[in-house]
Amino acid sequence: xxxxxxxxxxxxxxxxxxxxxxxxxxxxxxxxxxxxxxxxxxxxxxxxxxxxxxxxxxxxxxxxxxxxxxxxxxxxxxxxxxxxxxxxxxxxxxxxxxxxxxxxxxxxxxxxxxxxxxxxxxxxxxxxxxxxxxxxxxxxxxxxxxxxxxxxxxxxxxxxxxxxxxxxxxxxxxxxxxxxxxxxxxxxxxxxxxxxxxxxxxxxxxxxxxxxxxxxxxxxxxxxxxxxxxxxxxxxxxxxxxxxxxxxxxxxxxxxxxxxxxxxxxxxxxxxxxxxxxxxxxxxxxxxxxxxxxxxxxxxxxxxxxxxxxxxxxxxxxxxxxxxxxxxxxxxxxxxxxxxxxxxxxxxxxxxxxxxxxxxxxxxxxxxxxxxxxxxxxxxxxxxxxxxxxxxxxxxxxxxxxxxxxxxxxxxxxxxxxxx
Length: 420
Ligand code: CA
Description:
- The termini are far apart.
- This protein has helices at 42-59, 64-80, 130-136, 142-147, 184-187, 192-201, 205-218, 236-240, 251-254, 263-272, 277-326, 367-374, 382-407; strands spanning 2-10, 20-25, 30-37, 89-90, 92-98, 102-108, 112-117, 120-123, 167-172, 178-182, 225-233, 328-333, 336-341, 353-361, 377-379.
- By secondary structure, the protein is of the alpha+beta class.
- It is elongated.
- Residues 35, 183-185, 223-224 line the site of calcium ion.
């Protein structure tokens, strides 16, 4: 696998200073986000100190988790000797890549590490914050946590206590994996699904980091924002053999004829073959072909995955269509009582159509009939709707006749046949 990365730290839209610190060191395979806190720029000192200690300890061969513990001690010592720095602290989320294949994380605080694999975003680290612990205990919903006023109160940070518990994680990497480290200036402003979509959309690691910072700023940028995106791209050996097991027994170094069943060795032989343009080209071709077949394979998997969804959608549309066109209703349209086929107001792209417009005027209806037809009187069959309409017609005709009778010779006052 080959590694590509992008990073960005930004003061945001509200804060005067940036107390976040980041390290993206390809040579050391070390990537760190630290989010400092404390007055008088002490936060900056805390996050910068954490990074310095981490680099020097990792260079000395100390494990990442142990180096993080030592950073805690150094920050405490610094703070105790300087009143301006008293109470400073920092989060720290660090990853180092072992043998180009395994990501080793050390983590304290509420900065986060995520893994984007096959389009799915997984949060690797757990926040050490009051709110996240309430969520983990089931005492707060994740939705409530997002807007909780105390969501930035940490339960663990570097520089607070003599001993700090450091979370350690290990992830076996696959070609195509993307890691993202960030401070809470991103995650407090942008929800995970939006982060995930941005990471899937922007293939270039630097531009992906910039896009995430941009999203946080657009959402208000109320805190410092730091993002590191690390991509593990399939190297030549991955396109030949995505998971070489037991490879690397010196096939390339021996310089001998590659063994038939050792694609990795064969590939390396191709690469070091001197001055062979043809070989280089065919190597590139086969790498290309590898990429293409991998893409075809993932498209095929996607299609398989999506097929049931399409079937369900199709059935839903069919049922909706049947419902939309299989029902009838009687309503007032253009002052006349009218029989429609379909659903009042329409469903999706099915609009109701006029089946029959009667001669019954709105004025000829009783108040009760009018209110009944207001939203349309629904029927599941055409015959039901038709006989209802006929009843209304007969009713209206009878009332009209009665009215005529009553108006002719009599002298008593007319009582309008209005049913309340
Ligand atoms: Ca912060």
